[in-house]
Design goal:
The protein has about 375 residues and is of the alpha+beta class. It has 8 helices and 14 strands. It has a 7-stranded mixed sheet. It has a 4-stranded mixed sheet with strand order 6-7-14-13. Strand 6 and strand 7 (about 145-150) form a beta hairpin. The radius of gyration is 30 Å and the shape is globular. The termini are far apart. Residues about 1-60 and about 85-100 have low confidence and may be disordered.
């Protein structure tokens, strides 16, 4: 086999930029550094790719089983260490060593993957958007101090902020967001069951009692009618104060355009797009500063004369609180008559379980035992 003095490659086997449509008799030679491919056919010479010229050739030109095995091992090593640089495999064949897709189970950023369901409720055709099964977000609801609470952790707040922001820009009428049974926990205080949560933009998606009753009977839990990408790039472009300053006229105009009601055991948060964006910014910006808890009221713009009807509250150990509340409720109801149990009994038992698991708190003046 003669060599081309200009490129350093065998003249019969030269890399080329065209890698489509190889025949069964064509042998493929790979340049490991550039990812270019070449072909060897009897009595022909392949032109050299501009990107692959003057680079060493690492492939084998024989077709013995041992050489083919060495070439496959070498390619796997390159994919594992340097990443894939070769062209896609032929149609219908899986790509070996392909980098995994970004995880959507714990994702709370832009372009969330959600499921849509087409349901006819109370004589209207609704598009109900839900989290995908397996999404790692959990929520709970309860009513305290005449206010409906949505309880979760920091990931839940990020996820909820994305849902509200994307919903405020929906142009398709009768589109609502549902957080249903697969993503609901009993509340982390006394383990009372939580209600499904519906967010509806007004006036594009009126959601009354009849629709809530029908949704309660037909709560979607499967994959639905397709997957949607929830685009929310504007939520990250400006801070809450910058956005509020730019939208102040609309906020004043729609200051009280919202309602938070419980309809047929479904919590319905209906608000204008401007109020939904305000809630989205506030919820998405929640943090644990000096205490492992944070909260935001779901209310109108600078609405001091109207009591807050909704609130989002997050806890750093939300999931542990839910687990302890479940255990406390089971122990209390197992040892007493159900008619005699008060919520405070479950709270006290939950505190006892926490002490049982973590041990009694140590004072600041107490010194550890010396060995």
């Amino acid at each position: 086999m003669r060599h081309d003095s200009g490129s350093g490659f065998p003249a019969e086997i030269q890399p080329c930029s065209s890698w489509n449509g190889f025949s069964a008799r064509t042998r493929v030679a790979r340049n490991s550094l550039s990812g270019a491919y070449g072909t060897e056919t009897p009595g022909t010479s392949i032109s050299t790719s501009r990107n692959a010229r003057n680079r060493p050739f690492w492939g084998r030109h024989t077709t013995s089983p041992g050489d083919r095995r060495k070439t496959r091992c070498h390619r796997r090593w390159r994919v594992a260490t340097l990443g894939r640089t070769s062209p896609p495999a032929q149609k219908g064949r899986a790509l070996k060593g392909r980098a995994p897709r970004p995880g959507n189970r714990r994702d709370t950023g832009d372009r969330l993957k959600l499921h849509r369901h087409h349901l006819r409720l109370a004589g209207r055709d609704y598009t109900v958007v839900t989290p995908r099964p397996g999404t790692d977000v959990r929520f709970a609801t309860n009513r305290c101090h005449e206010t409906w609470h949505i309880l979760s952790d920091l990931r839940g707040a990020r996820f909820l902020g994305r849902l509200l922001w994307g919903l405020s820009y929906q142009r398709r009428p009768d589109t609502v967001v549902l957080i249903g049974a697969p993503f609901l926990d009993p509340n982390p205080f006394d383990a009372e069951p939580s209600d499904p949560i519906v967010f509806a933009p007004t006036p594009a998606a009126p959601f009354g009692t009849d629709a809530a009753r029908a949704l309660k009977r037909r709560t979607p839990t499967g994959p639905g009618h397709g997957t949607v990408r929830w685009h929310t790039p504007g939520l990250d472009q400006r801070t809450w104060s910058e956005w509020a300053d730019s939208q102040e006229p609309d906020l004043y105009r729609n200051a009280t355009d919202f309602s938070i009601t419980r309809r047929s055991n479904v919590l319905v948060f209906a608000a204008s797009p401007t109020i939904l964006r305000m809630w989205a910014h506030q919820v998405h910006a929640m943090r644990f500063y000096n205490f492992p808890m944070d909260y935001e009221y779901l209310e109108g713009w600078r609405n001091n004369f109207r009591m807050a009807e909704g609130e989002v509250q997050i806890f750093a150990e939300y999931r542990h609180m839910v687990s302890r509340a479940r255990t406390a409720r089971r122990e209390v109801f197992g040892a007493a008559d159900a008619s005699e149990v008060l919520p405070s009994d479950i709270w006290d038992r939950g505190d006892d379980i926490k002490l049982r698991v973590l041990g009694p708190p140590r004072s600041h003046t107490e010194q550890p035992d010396s060995a």
